[in-house]
């Protein structure tokens, strides 16, 4: 089995596509007005309209209701990304912070409230030990 994509259900595909294109620098592939994909080397982020939910099963998903999944994006310099996103992100959950496991991490919410983590491995944990 291979994980093919992570899909977000949204009431506004165009707004979420625009947001993630700005955050990632990746142009979305629009397969349909109700569906788009941002394809990267390591995986695909799919964005689908809430109008597609009845095709999945009654009340299978609800836009803006996620509070348990975090989208993680590996970047070269999280501090530079933080500065670049000032005019893109409305809600920062934290500023770049070095986590105990050694990643320098920035958390923010997308327009639907989904949590996004942009991180850079530092090579050491909070005590200066090499992170594994």
TrEMBL record:
Signal peptide: none
VOC domain ranges (all copies): 2-121
SUPFAM superfamilies reported in the protein's UniProt record: Glyoxalase/Bleomycin resistance protein/Dihydroxybiphenyl dioxygenase
InterPro entries recorded: Glyas_Bleomycin-R_OHBP_Dase (IPR029068), Glyas_Fos-R_dOase_dom (IPR004360), VOC_core (IPR037523)
Superkingdom classification of source: Bacteria
PROSITE patterns recorded: VOC
The protein, known as: Glyoxalase
